[in-house]
Structures are given as structure tokens and as C-alpha cells.
Amino acid sequence: MIPKSTLARALLGTALYLLVALAIRKLGPSCFAPDTVARLGGMWIAVPSIVIANALPKKKMIPLDRLASDLAEVQALRRFVAWALVLGGIGFMLAYALAPLAVANSMATALMAIAVIATGMRIVWSARRPG
Amino acid sequence: MTSIFKALADPTRRQVLQMLQAGPMGAGALAEAFEVSKPTMSAHFAVLVAADLIEAEKSGRTIVYRLKMSVLEEALMAFAQVFGLQVTPENPTLPARRRAKEKS
Lengths: 131, 104
Prior knowledge:
The complex is a heterodimer.
Chain A: H1 6-31, H2 34-55, H3 71-98, H4 101-128
Helix pairs in contact in A: 1-2, 2-3, 3-4
Chain B: H1 2-8, H2 11-20, E1 25-26, H3 27-32, H4 38-50, E2 54-59, E3 62-67, H5 71-82, H6 96-103
Helix pairs in contact in B: 1-4
């Protein structure tokens, strides 16, 4: 059932993601309260970040690997980026799930921005590191 | 998923994974850190490779192991470490009868 080709799996995953997003937007209002639909929609935004970042250390070759020549540093960089983006994604999701809806978007964006900035800083630090 | 839980259930294997968090290491260097026989260590490595938690790479005459854990797997390992989970026998290469003999 699950295609073997990486491209086919990626396309299938993207299609499923968009389908669920569409379902939340179109069918959500008839099943849930407007607040719940807004929360579900927000939480769904964080899913790709969590799923992709979670698998990052398992990937064979990623562009990050070119930033350092030392294998230990490459691994440390991959782990940092993965953890930062997964935690950022979880923070984003939790903000939409638990924070008052009026501030949920700002809070979620701020949490994700912190993760992205930390990732960027770690990448720059790794690229400038001698050796 | 079962293979991951099986791999993470053993404290020696968790220790191997923790050592590999610092960077890739040779099989010999890893084995030296433990007071177990080489076949036992090889069995532990095999379980970790089968669970896709580490990757073996041949470098000359030595085998270098590299960590290949997702964030979720690392979190599971930390969880198992905190709660001291141990569900597998201490020496996975020995048959059960011999293990019982060794213990007595």
C-alpha cells in the first residue's frame, strides 16, 4: 500500500497533509465549535516541522553535512537542528492547543521563531568553526 | 517499533548509544569500554543496527559506528534510562541454560 519510491511517498504524504488541512477548514465548522476549528488548524501547521525534523538525524546525506568536515560535529549539528525544530513544533502545537485563542498565534509564532533562530545561530557557529 | 524497544531495553546498548552521541566511534573503542566479550558486544551492535539506531561503516580494517536515532527514539532512550528499564537478559549471546549456570 505504501509506495517504495521516496518521491512517491513524499507526494502521498503531502497530498494527505493537504487533504486533512482542507477537511479541517471545510468540514470542521459543521462538526466542531469555531474555536476548536481554529485550534485544530493551528496545531496541524506544526505537524510537518515535527515529522520532518524528527527524522533528520536518520537521513543519509543532507545539506547540513557540508558545513563541517568533522563527523562528530556533523552529528552534533544534525541532532541540535532536529531537537530545536521538534521542540519548536511541539511548542507551536501546544500554544494553539492551550493558550487563549487571542494570543495563541503570536505565542506559537514566537516559539517557532525561537527554534528557527537557535537553529540558524547553531548553523552559523558550526560553519565558522575552524576545522 | 518492536525492534527499537528491544534495542533500548538493554542498559549496555543504551550506554553504547550514549557514547555514540558524542560522535562516531570504532567497534574496538566501544567494546573496550565494557567488561563483556567481543561476541556479546557484536550481538549488541547487531541488535542496534537491526533497529536502525546505529549505522556501521567500514573504514579500512575497522568498523565505525555512527548514531542514527530520530528525536523520538532519543526521547524514548532517555525515558528508558531515567526509569532504569531492563527487560532483556544481560548476555544476549548465551543460551538461557548457560546463563542460568553462570548465575549459580
